[in-house]
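Re: the 239-residue chain
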Amino acid sequence: MLWGVLPYVVLVLFIGGAVWRYRYDQFGWTTRSSQLYESRLLRIGSPLFHFGLLVVVIGHAVGLAVPKAWTAALGVTDAAYHAVALGLGAVAGACTLAGVALLVWRRRTAGPVFSATTANDKAMYAVLLLAIVAGLATTLVSTAAEFTGGHEPDYRTTVSVWWRSIWVLRPDVAAMAAAGMVFKVHVLVGMALFALFPFTRLVHAFSVPWFYLFRPYVVYRSRDEAGGRATRPVRRGWG
């Protein structure tokens, strides 16, 4: 039920919830920005959280989608792979945790921001914090196993195999069952976060303006001619 059925329930909630929200709650499709109430802490916490989360997402995508045999074929040893993954994961996870902790602190201590916080927001922050902490716990367990010679199962032969099998509609339940407990907790909390995703302010991630990366440059031209003042007459008032 956990590893063979629940993933598809979460997918239905994630995709169906996003479609429903877009069709029937477009006015609620927003971050409900509170920058107007407090901006000092937001300027620090928001970049920390978003940039850290971006690296975390990229790391998860590589770790889950790229089979172990592919990196081995490219000449990447297990030691090198784990060193890079653990190093980037620890830094990105720490930045993400620090950012979201600062955002939660800001939301709790800034009166107007706290007044604008809904029960939905509180539940979202709780699950998000738990997911980040669980992810950092997997990093700590993997690091400990790496340096102490432990026998913690490699997530690339357990969690990653299970994750890829979901998309071909043949969930490898045995692979996920062989994973360590800390990885199972992280996956369960992650699935809870994805199930809640479309019904919270996190839905604004679907509206990232990617077209900004490909839009033409905005060209500014001076109205002065040959370094002098503009020849257009100055119009004052309503004249």
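The mean pLDDT is 87.
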